[in-house]
Amino acid sequence: MRIFLAFLVGFLLSAAASAQTEDQALVKPEDYLIWSEPQIAQLQQLVDARAAEGLGNCSITNFSQPNSATDPHRRSRLATAAANELMRAYLEGCSPASARAKWRISSDDRYIDTQQLLLKALVRNDLVSYFDALRPRNPQYRALREAYAAETDDEKRATLAVNLERWRWMPLVMGDKYLLVNAASFEVTLWEKDKKIRTWPNIVGKTKSPTPIFSATVSGVILNPWWEIPTSIVAESIGSLVRNHPATARRKGYVVQNGRYRQRPGPGNALGQMKLVMPNPYSIYLHDTPNKNLFSEPVRTFSHGCIRVSGAIDLAKTLLEGAATVEKVDSILASRETTKLALVRPIPVYVAYFTAEQVEDGSVRYFPDVYKRDPQQLARNNLSTRCAV
């Protein structure tokens, strides 16, 4: 995956006609590590413009130090250091590790060889294109960046800066097709080639049991699922019900098998009629629910952490296109037999948290920070509502 990402970025930015010449040039980097004055000036413009990306708090090496102009080798070394720092900021942001500690979305972006990209940029005398290529591909980033540049309200600018940074924490290449769950907007969206295809409302974790931020791979759908009840919920309520009111527990489908508390498939099953196959260390899944009434609430923090989806069967049928017909899915649902169906091709799912996003009319919508994560990130990034401009 690391090699693939490095290759992909280089490939997307490479011109086939000049590839051989440039590969030969890269063999001897000392031949062109001396920056020209126009390149130095272009880099200075990019460094000065970083605040427009919400990167104003990033520290960049000063390559205009006294006496450096008279020493081209020293000036070039400083410029190279500054350019690599700016590239890394574009690619991953520049938050301290503590700010990103709970953002458990895996990414191999840190393995992209920015030094090689810089060398190619100098050969082609085109720094701008290479920095452009390291911006997040999802159009939400571009929309929020444009909103950030135009926004005059300090509080909104701070929120936009936080969300721009979160997009930099996402993988540069998210996949040809992927699901994106935004726990702040209470929506799950299907994307293809970085275009939003479908949206389904959802319910996420309570503030006491917030939905974690993580990534996984969806490989299939389970129709008429059993519910494997987490130990926390057993301790909270189900265990007591099974022990003290066994008849009621049986009526609701609760059983104990080999020490495991489970709930049979059926109309009252907590997972509803479907659950996505997406193994992860948090036991968090996208699934159906029998309690449809809660989807009408504007703030939907009602679960123990899992993601309940409105129109879950529609989501299942959409993901199973090419693998199972609508008629087959309906037949399995009617049978109430637990059945696992594989997707034609597994896709990534990203469970994230964005408190600002562009909507269909081009405006930016701000969501309640239900988990109070924005102020924490602002503090860790050493930002205030008057964030760097």
Any descriptors?
single chain; elongated; 14 helices; about 400 residues; 10-stranded mixed beta sheet; 3-stranded antiparallel beta sheet; 15 strands; alpha/beta; disordered C terminus
Instruction: Give the H and E element order.
Output: HHHHHEHHHHEEEEEHHEEEEEEHHEEEH
Mean pLDDT: 88
Summed up, the helix count is 14
Largest sheet: 10 strands, mixed
Please count the beta strands (DSSP E, at least 2 residues each): 15
Content-based structural category: alpha/beta
What shape does the CA trace take?
elongated
| N-end to C-end Cα span | 36 Å
What is the gyration radius calculated from CA atoms? 25 Å
- Helical percentage: 25-40%
Q: Beta-strand percentage?
A: 15-25%
Indicate the low-confidence ranges by residue numbers. Answer: 11-32, 384-389
Architecture overview:
The chain has about 400 residues and is an alpha/beta fold. The protein has helices at about 1-15, 20-25, 35-50, 70-90, 95-100, 115-125, 125-135, 140-150, 155-170, 230-245, 245-250, 310-320, 325-335, 375-380, and strands at about 105, 175-180, 185-190, 195-205, 215-225, 225-230, 255, 260-265, 275, 285, 300-305, 305-310, 340-350, 355-360, 365. Helix content is about 40%, strand content about 20%. The strands form three sheets. Strands 1, 2, 3, 4, 5, 9, 10, 11, 12 and 13 form a ten-stranded mixed sheet that branches. The chain has a three-stranded antiparallel sheet with strand order 6-8-7. The protein has a two-stranded antiparallel sheet with strand order 14-15. A hairpin with a 2-residue loop joins strand 7 and strand 8 (about 260-265). Helix 6 packs antiparallel against helix 7 (about 125-135) and helix 8 (about 140-150) runs antiparallel to helix 9. The chain is elongated and about 90 Å long.
